């Protein structure tokens, strides 16, 4: 069968370019269109020396696995916009939609530079204009849907109606979802990373036959394999059970359940370490068994994984939840839900809480506290779990839908 020649339209460096790298590995990448690409090694080095973390991270807008000759990126307009968004941290839908619209219009212009491409692979919410042109040219269109779409917004809205907290979250305008529905309609195939996302799309009228579930991969590095996790015979006030929540502190990801569970378990030898930017107003800095750290570097993230005893992922909705694999690569068992990628096997490499409540989370932690051997057993199965989510399988799965 004739191989596709793919234009990958990819805003940002999502999962460090996993998608375009997989297309390139399959020998089918014709062009990568992205907003910012730092092809110069000298420029990347200079960026790493900057004192501002938001600017240093731009050095990651590059991958050695993709030839810069295949990349088309934009000029100073998008770089300046990127600076603005990174410094501000929170921004409204008007700015998001303006950025996405400008990205798509520039991507359409870059598409015309390809003379042999017959397929466009775009990321949800930023692919509509490119799909319109692709359809006019008779090209195949594939959409990478990163989450359950509008279903996730409805879930968050319901949560906020029942959970009394001021948050920076706001629903997307109606036109945003109208454009998304057009995107899905123009897509010949839609890739999601979990059955959870697939169910969410089907619930809102997306045909099941168009949807392919492809799990995200993770690479186990030498630092992971060399690490040896040790648990105490029993937890105590001097050596408490360390529970890590890492990521943006949002109601969608269940941070309110962690806070409530910490209150319910106060007085027991359990410590909750929350790492990431907070989107809720709750002041839990006075809660003695919770420690909150803001944005951290990759090296600091690794340190928190190593120091923790169990990873908390009580999400109400995630397209996949790559932190599940990141934590298991450090032999760190995970407490998760069924509202994300299928990584956790209950009682084998972690625990699934159902229903998703603070009481269920607290009950699992009490059980672990009374029997640390449960952690040792689950930790021993983590690396084998991660090895099943390898890049070779991901590349083959991507190639199968091109």
Walk me through what this model shows.
One of its GO terms (biological process) is lipopolysaccharide biosynthetic process. Keywords: Transferase. This is A-glycosyltransferase-related protein, glycosyltransferase family 4 protein. With 402 residues, the protein is α/β, with parallel strands linked by helices. It folds into two domains: 6-218 and 390-401, Rossmann fold, CATH 3.40.50.2000; 222-387, Rossmann fold, CATH 3.40.50.2000. It contains 16 helices and 13 strands.
Set out the fold topology.
Elements: E1 6-9, H1 18-25, E2 29-33, H2 41-48, H3 53-56, E3 71-72, H4 76-88, H5 93-111, E4 119-123, H6 128-136, E5 140-144, H7 150-162, H8 174-186, E6 189-192, H9 195-203, E7 211-213, H10 222-225, E8 241-246, H11 255-264, E9 270-275, E10 290-293, H12 298-307, E11 310-312, H13 323-329, E12 334-336, E13 350-352, H14 358-370, H15 373-387, H16 391-401
Parallel strand pairs: 1-2, 1-4, 2-3, 4-5, 5-6, 6-7, 8-9, 8-11, 9-10, 11-12, 12-13
Helix pairs in contact: 1-16, 5-6, 6-8, 11-14, 13-15
């Amino acid at each position: 069968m004739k191989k596709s020649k793919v234009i990958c339209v990819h805003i940002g460096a999502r999962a460090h370019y996993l998608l375009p790298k997989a297309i390139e590995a399959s020998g089918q990448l014709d062009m990568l269109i992205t907003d910012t690409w730092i092809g110069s090694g000298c420029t990347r080095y200079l960026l790493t020396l900057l004192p501002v973390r938001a600017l240093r991270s731009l050095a990651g807008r590059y991958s050695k696995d993709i030839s810069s000759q295949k990349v088309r990126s934009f000029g100073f307009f998008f770089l300046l916009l990127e600076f603005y968004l990174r410094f501000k941290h929170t921004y409204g839908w008007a700015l998001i939609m303006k950025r996405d619209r400008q990205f798509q219009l520039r991507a359409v212009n870059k598409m015309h530079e390809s003379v042999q491409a017959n397929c466009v692979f775009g990321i949800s919410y930023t692919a509509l204009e490119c799909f319109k042109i692709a359809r006019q040219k008779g090209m195949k269109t594939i959409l990478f849907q990163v989450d359950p779409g509008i279903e996730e917004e409805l879930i968050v809205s319901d949560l906020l109606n029942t959970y009394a907290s001021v948050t920076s979250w706001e629903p997307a305008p109606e036109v945003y979802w109208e454009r998304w529905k057009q995107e899905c309609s123009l897509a010949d195939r839609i890739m999601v990373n979990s059955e959870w996302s697939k169910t969410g799309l089907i619930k809102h009228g997306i045909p099941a036959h168009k949807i392919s579930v492809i799990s995200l991969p993770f690479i186990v590095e030498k630092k992971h394999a060399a690490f040896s996790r040790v648990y105490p015979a029993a937890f105590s006030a001097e050596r408490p059970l360390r529970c890590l929540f890492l990521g943006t502190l949002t109601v969608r990801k269940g941070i309110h359940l962690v806070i409530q569970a910490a209150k319910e378990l106060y007085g027991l030898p359990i410590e909750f370490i929350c790492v990431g930017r907070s989107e809720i107003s709750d002041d839990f800095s006075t809660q003695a068994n919770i420690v909150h750290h803001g944005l951290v570097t990759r090296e600091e993230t690794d340190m928190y994984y190593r120091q923790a005893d169990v990873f908390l992922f009580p999400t109400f909705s995630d397209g996949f939840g790559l932190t599940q694999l990141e934590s298991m690569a450090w032999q760190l068992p995970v407490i998760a839900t069924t509202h994300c990628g299928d990584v956790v096997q209950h009682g084998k490499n972690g625990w699934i809480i159902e229903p998703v409540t603070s009481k269920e989370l607290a009950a699992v932690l009490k059980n672990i506290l009374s029997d640390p051997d449960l952690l040792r057993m689950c930790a021993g199965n983590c690396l084998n779990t991660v090895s099943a989510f390898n890049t070779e399988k991901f590349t083959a799965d991507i190639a199968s839908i091109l």
